[in-house]
Amino acid sequence: MSQLSRNTVVDVFSRVSSSAAPAYPLGDILLRMPPGNRSHRISLFCIFCAFSSAAAVAQSTHYSVKLEPDFERQLLRGDETIEFQADAGEIEWQKQAGLRLAIANIANGEVTVAEQAVRVRLRSGGRHSLKLKYTAAAGRGIQWFAGAAPHREDSQDSGFATAFYCEAWMVCDNSPGQRATLRLEIVIPFKEGGNLGFRAVGPGGPGREWRGRDGDHFVFEQDDPVQTYLFSFGVARLAVAIDGMFSIYAQRMDANRAAFAKTADAYNFLRAAASVDPLNAHYTQAFLPGRGMGQEAAGMALMSQDDLTNLAAKDDVQLMAHELAHQWWGVTLGIRSWSDFWLNEGFAEFMSDAYIEKHQGRPAYDKQIAELQDRMRKLREEGKDRPLHWEKWKDAHEALGQIPYVKGALFLDRLRTELGDEIFWRGIGLYTSGSARRLVDSIDFERAMEMASGRDLKALFDEAVYR
After folding, report:
1. Quick check: 274 and 433 in contact, CB under 8 A?
2. Quick check: is 384 in a domain?
3. Residue 336 CB burial class (10 angstroms; 0-12, 13-18, ≥19)
4. SS3 sequence, the chain?
5. Order of strands, sheet of 117-122, starting from the edge strand that comes earlier in the sequence
6. Strands 333-335, 438-440: parallel, antiparallel or unpaired by DSSP?
């Protein structure tokens, strides 16, 4: 795609649709609140994650994972190899209690398996390879759909999805400061000699697909390093449609034409704002049987079949745009620590609202901001306010939560008002393009906005981000 000019970003709000249909707030959800009040459909699933610690200096450079689902028992059988560079000492990866290891081997070291961790003591530094075999039961990070109950694998709505918590289905370093590449192979077994009819959809670019004696094989490869919480995937009975750089996986394809058009429009808007291409050249949207889904992954997003219907029939573009925005703010730019989670979620929420302004008009944007202000007011009343950049967290629940979404988007709206559209969007492009393929923190964003504006923004950032 050719690079769009900065004027495209500034002028885009003068070329908007006359539609003013309401939009839903917030995405990144595997389990969402009941939809009785759309303004409170806040993330429950992807905002919590365990953090890691390790005594030695280690960087997991490549994961190779092969999974075979057992639909009747709601179980995943896994073979995994972790190739990494590390100094001598102890290295730790995370796993959940439901992931049970049968084999854990490494040369030149000893492996210790705890309930929620795998530790390796290396006798020397260099490149190493840890080989694992395990089973992973249903838990936080794996959702088996209602139709996938025991003896129900023939249901049309059968299947499962993983989201955010890589440690549910593989052994991984889930800290945001660690990026890695991935080769994921999913084998859908035959039942009584027949094909169950499932397809897998996963992160990165699709690789080979073939039918072997043991089942249907689907390979996905993420060649550029990303955080492991971007390794999510899904398995269901899905049809596939491709339109240039976009793919849609869904049970029903009656709305795919409208979805492709709106996705392309949102992509053009976000690409102009970012001033840089996303990390992955191809983007896949998977609309799965489970309800209330919304999870970004590398080059992909997982959503619900209902979201595809609403995107076409109700012009509900918010979740689509939110998840697409993560391909820049969350994938192409990765946060250095959980203390700056707002640089992922606050940006994605604000950018989806900004796209709503372009697509549906300024009143629709103002409505989104008003809903965020109301939500922030309630969070303060409940005593849940805290700085956007916050280093005093004791666990992942404290580090993340709703504040990064709500307060982060509101700060970006305030910054836009303070600086004016031209300078604000210039700063967004400078920050995003200058930090592409890097780990970032709030200081990086502050410096980019100061460079774009020619102003000292320390007092503003101290008040809005650090206090």
Report:
1. yes
2. yes
3. middle
4. CCCCCHHHHHHHHHCCCCCCCCCCCCCCECCECCCCCHHHCCECCCCCCCCCCCCCCEEEEEEEEEEEEECCCCEEEEEEEEEEEECCEEEEEECCCCEEEEEEEECCEEEEECCCEEEEEECCCEEEEEEEEEEEECCCCEEECHHHCCCCCCCCCCEEEECCCHHHCCCECCCCCCEEEEEEEEEEECECCECCCCEEECCCEEEEEEEECCEEEEEEEEEEEEEHHHCCCEEECCEEEEECCEEEEECCCCCHHHHHHHHHHHHHHHHHHHCCCCCCCCEEEEEECCCCCEEEECCEEEEEHHHHHHHHHCCCCHHHHHHHHCCCECCCEEECCHHHCHHHHHHHHHHHHHHHHHHHCHHHHHHHHHHHHHHHHHHHHCCCCCCCCCCCCCCHHHHCCCHHHHHHHHHHHHHHHHHCHHHHHHHHHHHHHHCCCEEECHHHHHHHHHHHHCCCCHHHHHHHHHC
5. 89-94, 117-122, 109-113
6. parallel
Return the HEC string of 73-132: CCEEEEEEEEEEEECCEEEEEECCCCEEEEEEEECCEEEEECCCEEEEEECCCEEEEEEE
**For residue 53, what pLDDT is reported?**
36
For 444, residues 6+ apart whose C-beta sits below 8 A from its C-beta are 431, 435
Q: Which two tokens stand for residue 83?
A: 């190739």
What CATH number did the domain enclosing 292 receive? 1.10.390.10
How far apart CA 261 and CA 437 sit, in angstroms, is 28
Q: What local confidence, expressed as pLDDT, does residue 292 receive?
A: 81
Q: Identify whether the C-beta of residue 266 lies closer than 8 Å to the C-beta of residue 211.
A: no
The whole-number pLDDT of residue 396 equals: 58
| Residue 203: closest CA among 233, 225, 176, 243 | 233
- The model's pTM is 0.86
Domain limits for position 322: 6-49+244-466
Is 69 among the domain residues? no
Domain count within the chain:
1
pLDDT of residue 9: 37
Q: Which residue numbers in the chain have pLDDT < 50?
A: 1-55, 148-151, 153, 192-193
Chain centroid to Cα 428, Å, comes to 20
Q: Sign (positive/negative) of CA torsion 309, 405, 204, 321?
A: positive
**Inside any domain, residue 196:** no
- What's the pLDDT score for residue 58? 57
Structure confidence at residue 56 (pLDDT)? 54
